[in-house]
Amino acid sequence: MFDPQDFYFKKAKKEWYKARSIFKLEEIDKKFKLFHKKENLNILDIGCAPGSWVQYLDKITASKSKIIGLDLKATQLNLKKTYCYVQDATDIEKVKDILKTHNIEKLDIITSDMAPNTIWFKDIDSIRSLELIKSTLPLYDTFLKENWKFVIKIFMGPWFDQFVFELKKKYGWKKIKTFKPNSVRKISKEIYIVKIA
Ligand SMILES: C[S@@+](CC[C@H](N)C(=O)[O-])C[C@H]1O[C@@H](n2cnc3c(N)ncnc32)[C@H](O)[C@@H]1O
User: Fold this and answer.
1) pLDDT by residue (tens digit) across 130-141?
2) Is residue 2 part of a domain?
3) 195 domain residue, yes or no
4) What 3-state class would DSSP assign to 38?
5) Per the domain annotation, does 72 fall within a domain?
6) DSSP of 81-132, one letter per residue?
7) How many structural domains compose the chain?
8) Nearest CA, atom 19, ligand 1
9) For the chain, what percent of residues have pLDDT higher than 90?
10) pLDDT bracket for residue 187 (50, 70, 90)
11) Which protein residue has the closest C-alpha to ligand 1 atom 24?
12) Domain extent at residue 60
């Protein structure tokens, strides 16, 4: 049964996180050790609102890290190393301009929890999610450093295996992993694609 105020919702509230999504990123980080706590990292977080992932990133990264968050909606947070913009992430030129204003030439990690508005027709939601992700892929090719990493949320659909196959072919067979954190709701089609270093 769908319980909007489940264990993770209550835990997020108690720990002052903006959304229960935080626990998905935390689980992904625990499993793949994405964020080296002592290194200064430049991170782009796509689809950042309401802001739990940037809260986590701001907390765990070293002091000179820079975290840039983008979303169609405003993110109301006051964090030390994080700058959030109301910005469509598919507008690649505008995103490049934002990174330039922060003197960011290369990124260490891109995290994307972006999701289209869902209509609960699973196949349509999933194809929209794929299109959204694909339209931001030029950012990955332009900005990521060597040995870089990414995390991408996607809605599982009939095309999923083919998409993962294409990513593996492009980025390395052993570098692309898929993972469904325990904190993803059981009824959800969400799954994360992770590129490790
Ligand atoms: C599940 S929420 C992200 C939650 C976030 N990771 C957190 O921890 O608070 C998905 C977000 O993707 C955003 N989104 C959808 N399309 C987008 C686009 N083209 N550009 C930027 N953000 C987008 C939505 O506005 C929504 O806020």
Assistant:
1) 999 999 999 999
2) no
3) no
4) coil
5) yes
6) SEEEEE--TT-HHHHHHHHHHTT---EEEEEE---PPP-S-HHHHHHHHHHH
7) 1
8) 88
9) 84
10) confident
11) 47
12) 7-189
Separation of alpha carbons 48 and 56, rounded Å: 11
| Ligand 1 midpoint to CA 185 (Å) | 17
**CATH number of domain containing 60:** 3.40.50.150
Q: Report if residue 197 sits inside a domain.
A: no
Distance 45 CA to ligand 1 centre (A): 9
Q: In which band, very low, low, confident or very high, does the pLDDT at 122 lie, cut at 50, 70 and 90?
A: confident
Which CB contacts under 8 angstroms, 24+ apart, belong to 116-119? 118/155
The pLDDT tens digits of the residues spanning 7-49 come to: 899 999 999 999 999 999 999 999 999 997 788 999 999 999 9
Helices (H), the chain: 7-14, 22-32, 52-60, 92-101, 122-143, 160-171
